[in-house]
Structures are given as C-alpha cells and as structure tokens.
Specification:
- It is globular, with a radius of gyration of 22 Å.
- The N and C termini lie far apart (about 55 Å).
- About 40% of the residues are buried.
- Helices cover about 45% and strands about 15% of the residues.
- α4 runs antiparallel to α5 and α9 packs antiparallel against α10.
- The protein folds into 3 domains: about 120 residues, Orthogonal Bundle (Butyryl-Coa Dehydrogenase, subunit A, domain 1); about 120 residues, Butyryl-CoA Dehydrogenase, subunit A, domain 2, CATH 2.40.110.10; about 130 residues, Butyryl-CoA Dehydrogenase, subunit A, domain 3 (Up-down Bundle).
- Bound molecules: flavin-adenine dinucleotide (FAD).
- Flavin-adenine dinucleotide binds next to β1, β3, α10 and α11.
C-alpha cells in the first residue's frame, strides 16, 4: 500500500468517525452564502477540526502550518466530497489567498498568515471587483498612495463574499494612473474593526446576503502587507484567478454536495413528485433529461481524470480552465430539471410549509446564476479559452 493509499484510508475512517451532527439551523448551499453567526461558528469549528486532523493544508510546508506532504490535498478533498461533509467556510483563504501568498508573499507574510487561514481562525475575502471593474479587472480604481512606510487606501469594492466575517482581504489597488496593468499593486488589508473600513451587506435575488460592498476611506496599511513589487498587482492577481477558477489546487476544499449526489437527489425527487397522476419518474421525457445530466456528470469525472494525464491533453490549461464553465452550467441545468420535476410546486420557496425538499431547488436555481458570474463570468472564461487555448482572434 502506498502512502497515498494509506492516507486515503485514514481520511475515509476519520470522516466516517467525525462527521459533525447536522446543525439545528439551515446551512446555505455554499460557503459564500454564510450569513449568520451560528452558521459561521459551526463551519469554522468544522474546518478547524479538519485542519487539526491533517485534512487541510496537507501539501503546504510545515513551517507555514501545513502538513508538508505532496499529493495529499487532492485525496483529502476528494474524500470530503465523497463523504458529503459540510464545506470549508474559508474558501477564499484556502483556494485563493493561501496559494497567492505562498507564490508571491514574503517569508514574514507566509509565517504570519497561512496557518491561521488554514485553521479558519482568520477568515479571508477577496477585494477585486469594483462598480466599474468586474470583467475588466485591470480598470480597478481603488487607490493606494505611499506615505512613508505605509500606504493610504481609498475606494469601493463590491460583491465581496464573506467580507462581513473576514479579518483580511486580498486586494487589488491602483498605485499609478500612468499604466493600466503595471499601475496595479496587490495588498493584504486588515478589514475587521479597521478605522476607515465599512462593510455593507448586499441582498441577492435568493433573499440571502453573503456578499457585500466594502468602502475604504483613508485606510492605513503598512508596506509589509504589500504582496510582491509595486506595479506587479496584475501578475499577482492572475495567480489568484488561476486558483479561483480551479485551474490549480489550493490549500484545501471539499465537502458539500457532490454532482453525483445532486443527480441522485433528482432521481429521488422525481420518484416522489407526481405528474399526470403518476410519479414524475415514469415520464420518459423526465427520465431522458435526468439521464442526460447523469451522463454529463460522468463526462466531468472522466475529464477530471484525463486532466491529470499530460499526454491526453492538447493544451495544459484547456481542461482545468473549462471546468468552471462546465460545472456552473451543469449545476444550473440540474436545478432547472428539478423545477421541471416539481412542476407548480416549484413556486414554493424556502420557508413555505408545502415546498418539496424545503424549497432547496428553487433556491439552488436562483443561486446557480451567481456561479456562472462569480470568479469571472462564463462569457469571459469562454473568451480566455478561445483566445489562449484555441488561438482564435482576440475578442477586442
Ligand atoms: C456569487 C458571486 C460572488 C462574488 N464574489 C466576489 C468576491 O468575493 N470578490 C470579488 O472581487 N468579486 C466577487 N464577485 C464579482 C465577480 O467577479 C464579477 O461579478 C464578475 O467578474 C463580473 O463582473 P461584473 O459583475 O462587473 O459584470 P460586467 O463586467 O459588467 O459584465 C456584465 C456582462 O457583460 C459580459 N461581458 C463583459 N465583458 C465582456 C467581454 N469582453 N466579452 C464578452 N462578454 C463580456 C459579462 O460576461 C457579463 O455577462 C462575485 C460575483 C458573484 C455573482
């Protein structure tokens, strides 16, 4: 048995023995919709437990709080997904901030920030988008002006998931107006109880919050919180986006509901809902639709396996880069199929006593649009695939 096989067995056993009791309150569908203090506490305690057990930060160097292994994180994340345990709340820290700091941070930053991030003692958020800089991130206008050993930050970030719980933000700022890309600099910014920082929740179509706008008014940040060189912010941000879009493995993820489980839930729903006096599952059109989704899930699994074999891909980034598009659209199509199966009952939402499955499917459907936009819209992702992978002409 290899050490990887042994670790997989350990993960399975540990997860079976330590699965947390379901909370008495509803958990949102994803970590970026966590709204209440009791949800935060439950999920932080779970992430810390997973970290203490060695399932988070497995491949990170020991001196920064990691496990010091190689190839363990993917196994731990797979097993958490398979066990369908709760997800990791510090998703932005684990998937984006940690790898960015590891790749571009100073030794001092790595020692200060990575361990409490892995254990969810400190939650992170991402301050990239602004009212006029979303797809065109390089148009970021939040300014950082040098003042001796400090920087003074002013500006407005928006759609900032988890900012209401976050201690730290990874932030793209403008330090020069002379160059679009080379005028950007990347910072780590303390945002909890910081003078000049205002975090305001934004309410989504689902009725949930989870993301915010964050305003900065003369916020003072030491130069030691700058990540990489002045004017290198675009390069650092590209590292963050590579991890955010799933093209590279961060410090941990996993948990939540897998695509397989989603399809299994759909079949179960179709057996319980009635259509023309019979179970919806008896309708060949419904069965055909569910079968199509199951085939796509299997396709995703095979693509994932294939992406690990270099010789089977024409371009090293093609399969990882397309994953964000295919997964978000598949989740949306699964939720849409559930609404079709529920029929008129799909108009009953979370909190309605007669809603099938407590209204989770209309909620999932509304939420699914956010995932086709977050981490860069699918249109932009298709442009990247077209231009950088297929070598097509630039869109503009
Ligand atoms: C659920 C959710 C969570 C988020 N969390 C965060 C977060 O934590 N931190 C953060 O910084 N941001 C976050 N975002 C913001 C997200 O990154 C942006 O919404 C996204 O990059 C799109 O930017 P925008 O909203 O400004 O839309 P715009 O850039 O204004 O785009 C509007 C529309 O035009 C299309 N479009 C724009 N340019 C092109 C082009 N060149 N070619 C083709 N189509 C184009 C887009 O695809 C989109 O459909 C989150 C968004 C969502 C939905």
């Amino acid at each position: 048995m290899t050490e990887h096989d042994e670790f997989r067995e350990y993960c399975r056993r540990w997860l079976a023995e330590n699965r947390p009791a379901p909370p008495s309150f509803r958990l949102p569908l994803s970590p970026i919709e966590v709204m209440t203090e009791e949800q935060r506490r439950y999920l932080c305690a779970w992430e810390k437990k997973c970290y203490d057990a060695g399932l988070i930060g497995c491949d990170y160097p020991k001196e920064y709080g990691g496990g010091g292994h190689s190839g363990f994180q993917q196994i731990a994340s797979q097993e958490m997904g398979r066990a369908q345990v709760p997800y990791m709340i510090n998703v932005i820290g684990l998937s984006m901030a940690a790898p960015t700091i590891l790749n571009h941070g100073t030794e001092e930053q790595k020692r200060r920030f990575i361990a409490p991030l892995l254990s969810a003692d400190e939650i992170w958020c991402q301050g990239f988008s602004e009212p006029n800089a979303g797809s065109d991130l390089a148009n970021a206008q939040a300014s950082a002006v040098r003042d001796g050993d400090n920087w003074v930050i002013n500006g407005h970030k928006v759609w900032t998931s988890l900012a209401h719980f976050a201690s730290w933000m990874i932030m793209v700022t403008r330090t020069s107006n002379d160059h679009k890309y080379n005028g950007l600099t990347y910072f780590i910014v303390p945002i909890a109880n910081t003078k000049g920082v205002t975090v305001r929740p934004l309410i989504k179509i689902t009725g949930e919050t989870g993301f915010n706008e964050v305003l900065f008014e003369d916020v003072v940040v030491p130069d030691s919180y700058r990540v990489d060189d002045i004017g290198k912010g675009w390069t650092v941000a590209m590292t963050t986006l590579l991890y955010e879009r799933g093209a590279a493995e961060g410090a941990g993820s996993g948990g939540g509901i897998s695509l397989d489980e989603r399809v299994a839930q759909l079949i179960d729903l179709a057996k319980r809902c009635r259509r023309d006096g019979k179970p919806a599952w008896d309708d060949p059109i419904i069965r055909d639709r569910v079968a199509g989704l199951a085939i796509r899930v299997e396709g995703m699994r095979q693509v994932h396996r294939r992406s690990r074999v270099e010789a089977l891909t024409d371009h090293p980034m093609r399969l990882p880069l397309q994953a964000k598009v295919t997964v978000s659209e598949l989740m949306q199509d699964i939720a849409a199929a559930a609404l079709e199966i529920e029929g008129p009952a799909s108009s009953l939402y979370v909190g309605d006593p007669g809603a099938p499955d407590n209204g989770q499917w209309p909620l999932a459907y509304l939420n699914s649009y956010g995932f086709t936009i977050a981490a860069g819209s699918n249109e932009i992702q298709r442009n990247i695939l077209g231009e950088r992978v297929l070598g097509l002409a630039k869109s503009k």
